[in-house]
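Collaboration report, partner site 2.

Our partner group contributed sequences for two proteins of shared interest, and the home lab folded both. The records are reproduced in the order in which they were received, starting with the first partner submission.
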Amino acid sequence: MTLPLTPDELLTTTRTVRKRLDLSRPVPLELIRACVEIALQAPSGSNEQSWHFMVVTDADKRAAVGEIYRQQVARYADSSRFAGRMFADRPERSAVQQRVGDSVLWLGEHMGRVPVLVIPCLRTGKPVPQGNQAGLWGSLLPAAWSYCLAARARGLATAWTTLHLGQEAEVARILGIPDGVHQGALLPTAYFTGTTFRPARREPVESVWHENTW
């Protein structure tokens, strides 16, 4: 059963959800499986389909991954890149960024309690190459985003996170992910509190539109 969303509504209301993740409501595993099945329809380079989805529901493993995420959030919060300190010279954006920063810190403390953690992975059988990796990750990230869209259509919320990759090898050991399989994101998945979501405020298209030349 999916929500009555138009394609445009689905695309503009699939948000990164943190504080509104419902930590108390279990998520049926068959719902996650349905979302992954949708994700597998995404494109991949040469139709190789070398993606894998690690679905973590075990409480101890979720807690262990959550602790790693908490450590990485703490490091991120102390860095100059922290979302909460961005655009300090633009009051209208600074207020939004501070709210984002607060929600990042909240998720850092609660990641291990989210009912389902999904980690999309890419099997290469070898280390990730140096240099431009767009072609490599282009065979995984569309599928990961399709998973998020499918979850939204089924009344679930997700957050696109990557901070855990600072300790990717440790997460791999916890979850038994073999060598040659690389993690692309960490997608906490849960029902959400409140009613629905609305499109976010963005910069006008004219600020990013370049026609024929930059």
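Second partner submission, folded after the first:
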Amino acid sequence: MKAVYATDLSAASEAAIENETCLGCLGRIGVEEVHLVTVVPSNVHAGMPGLDFEGRRKRGLARYSRTMENAGFDVETHVVRGTPHRRINGVAGTVNADLTVVGSRGKSPLENRVIGSTARNLARTTVVPLVVNRVERGAEDPEVVRKHLFQRVLFATDFSENADRAFQSFSYLRHATQEATLVHVRSPKDPDPEGELSPADRLDELAERLDEWDIEVETDVRRGDPAEEILAAESEYDPTAVLLGSRGHSRLRRLLLGSVSEDVVARANGNVFLVPPPRTA
């Protein structure tokens, strides 16, 4: 597997990249090749007085590259210019990556709604599965919030095609996952199913598939707003990662509307693993 690892050379990025446990988790799910990417904003110029951007980029990427090579990965570095989430997606598509990883301190819900972030923009537009590796907020020398990326997974499903695609990720996550909580959120307006399996029964079917891989599983059917209930389940079960699928939106809808996946990426306390629709969709 190939992974694009995006870094802005910040303390948060450094904490995520230099954590041996996180890197070990990526290795266990089959990542062998890492493409380190840093994006220089278009309005930043190498010749700006008092700012050694070029030297800082080279030193930072060289240090991160050595860390990842020592962890057993083949590493290639990319310095690109432009809008971060667009260029990160571009590199992921070009190298045919299997997933993208980005470290994120996160922001308050208000800040995320008003100004956005690279992680949230990637959640809207990513072309490959996205791992948001959460780093401590408000710390000068931050550490990752959950060192084991996939040890305890909370999988949120609405039983859609997109959710089923996200569930298929267990085919490789299982090498790093020991426990899983399967959650379905029903709207208060949803009618009780007639002549078909109940949500609890459908979760049990998924649980049986994970049992075959010796993953310890529990299920939970909740009622309410999907994003709020998924975040409440995260607080209750304390997973190392929340796994969910993304429906994707048109460009206009991305600008005007949020989504469950974007909300969870923005507000989750820990890591999020987001699986988007296929690239051809």
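Feedback sent to the partner group on the second submission included the following. The beta strands are 2-6, 33-40, 74-81, 99-104, 130-134, 152-156, 179-186, 216-223, 241-245, 271-275. The radius of gyration is 19 Å.
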